Structures are given as structure tokens and as C-alpha cells.
Amino acid sequence: MLRFGQVLRSGALSQFRCLSSAKSHGDVLPRSCDVLIIGGGGMGASSAFWLKSRSQQLGKKLNVLVVERDACYTNASTVLSVGGVRQQFSLAENIEMSLYGYNFIVNGQKHLGDVDLCYQPNGYLILASAKGAHILAQNSKLQNELGARNELLGPEALRSRFPWLSTEDVELGCHGIDKEGWFDPWALLMGYKKKARALGAHFSSGEVVGFEWNSSGALSAAVVDVGDGVQRPVNFDTCVLAAGAHSGQVARLANIGDPEAKTSSLRVALPVEPRKRYVYVFSTQGRNCPGLATPLTVDPDGTYFRRDGLCGNFLCGRSPSDEEEPECDTLDVDHGYFETDVWPTLASRVPAFESVKIQSSWAGYYDHNAFDANGVIGRHPHYSNLFIAAGFSGHGIQQTPAVGRAISELILDGKFSTIDLSRLGFDRLVNKQPMFEVNIV
To answer: How does DSSP classify residue 423?
Structure first.
């Protein structure tokens, strides 16, 4: 049985936070900077934090400017995510970035000062059918070799450990027993911004609507619309493109993806686009309900749920198939999708969820990389002063510490030093060498 209560419109909480922030609209837009970061969400703010922190440690003066089009972060992917951190991936780079992210998050005050990221160490539980069990086991082996801590559980062990769980059609589960959980994405974003500002970074409100080039064809300035009807150029030495779901659109302004470009690398587009995802918050009066320590549980069909706070609520969602992708014109929530695609799986996997009531809901954007659903990190092969951090397809927030650090290493040191992310560069798009995650089914 389904019952629907009050729905929290997407962005309402962010708007409240914006109104409560005295500096929500940011600094006056300067005419020039050393490093311009396009996008002030998790990736951009992390990049600003690491650039200022590390340049100070190296004794270098670096003028860093972040330009964000959504000053209140009303529609920003960062603050509308569910804030998960996990190492249950199949690519070594994703595992290593998420391990780095975990260590950063649990030591947030060491890095960012007085910030409470509200980390909940309840882990992930990923379930696989007989068809996907061998992949789950193979991935678990690699994850543990790289420093993750998870265990494989068969149906009987799953029922014993999680008595609220139905194991019908489940062959194996992988349970993260350490270094996995979830946190407050807003708190992390504000922590990055506050610390970066304290170190001298500037955050301005505006939308990049074009670029300028110097006589040799290199990018030299971004044209920014600050909303007053006047477009202003901001000169830079280096640019970081971290505009989330809009990164592909911004890249096109720099002629990236122009089919008539003279160089092959410019003819290749940055295939990052918005994909709308729904999150539903529900309650239940069912018996044998999952408790406070319940891990974020992922069904073989991709439906997930986890506890949401101390009041007995749960949040859940599921990515649609390619044929079911919703339009991205608005962030309106489709509750019919919950009834037809999400709730039936919840009810069959957890009998206590047979009767639920929707308490609230929201929608947010994935910055989806249509090429291989993994982040593009590093220098553009044509523009030597353009660095990209985009396309993380739903798992970016936990990787912001590692990606921001990596961008700072490329700019300040000329190479990766903490984690080698070379395989996730733009060159793989040019060479048509996708880096796919091996999905569990």
C-alpha cells in the first residue's frame, strides 16, 4: 500500500540555506586571475581548496577565482546527492579515489577546520543474482587488495546478519564493514568554500557564456555574465572546467566538439550532460524494520535504500534505463516512477516496506558521461592550459577530495603524485578507449 504525504520541492532546502548565507552572492568579479575555476560545486570548490592550500605550502602566490552560475546551489548536483562514500567499484582508480575520499571525510576537521560532515559509518550492502555473483566476488577481491574492507555473504549469512532482508533471487552480497557510509554533501561543500576563502580564493556569481583566445590560439579569457546585462571578460593563465552536468555545454563554448575543427582532439566533444534522478523519502509501520545501523542496500536491479536520520525514515531511488530517461527541463519529481519501478522492488526485498508513506522527495542532476559513465580528469590535449574535472555520473561527491587534489597536482607540479589518474584523461575519448565499470546484476 502506498500513501503520499507532503513533498519537499527540489531546491527548497538549498534556497533556505542561500537566504541564511550572508555571502551567498560572492565576491565582485575581478578582471583577471591566475586560475579560473568554472563551477563552484564539489569539484570546483575542492580544486580551489587544494590549489590554495598546496600553493601556500609550496611558497607560491596563486590568485584563484571560482565562478558559479547557481549562487544558492538550488539545482547543484553536489547538494542534491545522497552523499554516499563506498569503495565497491571495479576500476582501481575509482576505488583509490574513494578510499582517499573516506580518509579526507573522517578527518574533515583536520583539513577544513570547524566543520561537521555528519559521517555515518554504516557501509554499503550490494546484492547480486547468480548471474552477477562472480563479478561481485572478483570486484571484492580487488577492493580489499587496494585497502577497502568488505565481506562476501551468501543467502543464509545475509538472512542471519540482516533478518529484515528477503534473499529471494540473491546469490551473494558484498557488505562494506569499514570505510563506507554517507555524509552531508552541503557541509562538505561549505567546508571547502570556507577554507578556500580563508586561504585567499575568491568565489563570484556568474555564468560563463563564451571564451576568448590569444593570437596563438590558446584560451586566454572567459566571458562571464553576472546577471546585470553586461558580459565581462576575465583573463586567466589556467582554467579548470568543473561545471558538473553543464560541463559539456561549457566545453562547446571553447569549440571542443566542433566537427569542423582543424585538430582531431578539438573535434571530440566532452560528452557530459545532465541526467535527472529522483530521491524519495518514506516511512513505514511494517514489522521487522531495518534498524539504525542498516547499510545502504542496493538490489540487483539497482534500486537502493538507506536510513535517513533518527526518525524512522528511509530514502531510496533507482536510475532508469536508457529508454526511460526523463526530460531534464525541470527538477519536478515523477511519483509514478516510485509506484511502478521503485516500490515493487523495495516491497519484495524488505517485507516491512510493503506498506510505506512518502514523506518528501527531490530530484537532482547526475553529470553523466555518455561515453563510459566515469569522470574525465586532467589536461585537455589541445588546450594546454585547460583542465577538466567532470562527468562522474553519480559517484563524484565522494571523489571530490581526490579529484581536487589531483587537479592541484597537475597545475602546480605538472603530474599526478597521490593517485595516478592518467587513464581517466580526455585522451581516452580521442582514442575511443572507454573505462567502464563492471556492473553487478
So the answer is: G
Would you say residue 23 has pLDDT above 60? no
Average pLDDT over residues 170-191: 98
Q: How would you class 301 by CB atoms within 10 Å of its CB: exposed for 0-12, middle for 13-18, buried for 19 or more?
A: middle
Phi, then psi, of 272 in degrees rounded to 5: -105, 130
Question: What's the whole-number mean pLDDT along residues 135-153?
Answer: 98
Count other C-beta atoms under 10 Å from residue 63's C-beta: 17
Confidence of residue 1 (pLDDT cuts 50, 70, 90): low
CB neighbour list of residue 328: distance below 8 Å, 6 or more residues apart? 274, 275, 276, 365
Nearest to 402 by CA among 416, 414, 385: 416
Q: Give the pLDDT score at 310.
A: 85
Is the CA virtual torsion 438, 333, 366, 382 positive or negative?
positive
Query: DSSP assignment of 291-351, as one string?
Result: -TT--EEE-TTS-EEEEETTTTEEEEE-PPPGGGPPP-SS----HHHIIIIIHHHHHHH-G
393 vs 439, higher pLDDT: 393
The sheet with strand 356-369 has its strands ordered as 2-4, 356-369, 272-284, 313-317, 304-308, 296-298, 124-128, 172-178, 149-153
Confidence check: pLDDT of 394 > 70: yes
**Mean pLDDT (whole number) for 370-398:** 97
Q: How far apart are the first and last CA of the chain?
A: 27
What is d(CA 180, CA 124) in angstroms, rounded to the nearest whole number?
6
